Amino acid sequence: MRRLSILVMTVVLSAVGSARADNWQNTLFSERSFDFGPVPRGGVVRHPFVLTNRLSVPISILNLRVSCGCTSGTASASVVQPGQTAIVEAQMDTRNFVGRKSTTLFVSVMAGNQESEIGLGVSSMILSDVVLNPGVVEFGLVNRGQTPSQIVAIDRIGKPEWKVVKLTSACKAITASLQETQRVNGSVSYQLTVALKPDAPAGPIRDEIRLVTNDPETPSIPVPIGALIRGELSATPASLALGNVASGSNVQGKFGVRASKPFAIARVEGTGEGFYLQETDAAKKVLHILTLTYNPAEGTMKGDLSRTFKITSDLPGEPPIEVTATLHVDP
């Protein structure tokens, strides 16, 4: 009887462990869907889904695909180590649709030798009578200290009493002003001017301005803001294509990291699983040459790979920069 009890317990524990292994992908995201609510036509709305690696092995984000061309996605990392997190951001472009719209962003991931695909749903009610042009303030790559500005036209059709009562934003890197330009024939128009501050810190900006209105059906309208402010450090190339790699041979490439004054490389993140990013001379200088080596014998992935590395310097107040390597590993 004792042997039988032990055998039964072993079978039960094995079944539980197998169930946990089969459901590992369900532990990655705390939320699997998001509703943006009412949004103006022409706007671009986005939401960050947080991926948390609760496993004991790294998780690779292999691919992002969407069920509709109105939606796109980006991932903040290609590999998520145990205990770490990454952001998978879903974006919905409302220019070509009105009414209720629901789409899915599919995230392909691999842990060890197990591959899975997770669906993240996003939905919104796209309004036909509120229009933004353009729907997003995107400054692109900007050198620190520059102060570019952009103008967004806001039109409300068929509601002459409609009014924007105030602007709100948590982003301290911008200035924003709003001016009413027209109120005629039942339509209302505003002009929103957004500019970067000269002291905006280096690094990415992913934020938004909220237009608070007097309409209970659309109490606030989001206007996304995006920029990448280039600081003292720069890397050439920012993305390195290593080409095809045979299973039995290493491949190498080089990154140049530059600043206007001598500095040292304090830390490099993102190596491992066959990737090495090193330099032979650790002295302070204005240009560092880092050699990237990939050994396919130490990696577990085949096919198209993308790896992002974060390089931190000893320059005070200077944020790290990121570089990316892409390659194809032959079977």
Tell me the strand percentage band: over 45%
- Which architecture of the largest domain does the CATH hierarchy give at level 2? Sandwich
The CATH C-level name of the largest domain is Mainly Beta
SSE order: HEEEEEEEEEEEEEEEEEEEEEEE
Rg over C-alpha atoms, rounded to the nearest angstrom: 25 Å
The percent of residues in helical segments reads under 10%
Number of domains: 3
Number of strands: 23
Structural class: mainly beta
| Fourth-tier CATH superfamily name of the largest domain | Immunoglobulins
Instruction: Name the average pLDDT.
Output: 86
Q: What distance lies between the first and last C-alpha atoms, to the nearest angstrom?
A: 51 Å
CATH topology of the largest domain: Immunoglobulin-like
- Poorly predicted regions are 4-20
In DSSP terms, counting alpha (H) and pi (I) runs of 4 or more, how many helices?
1
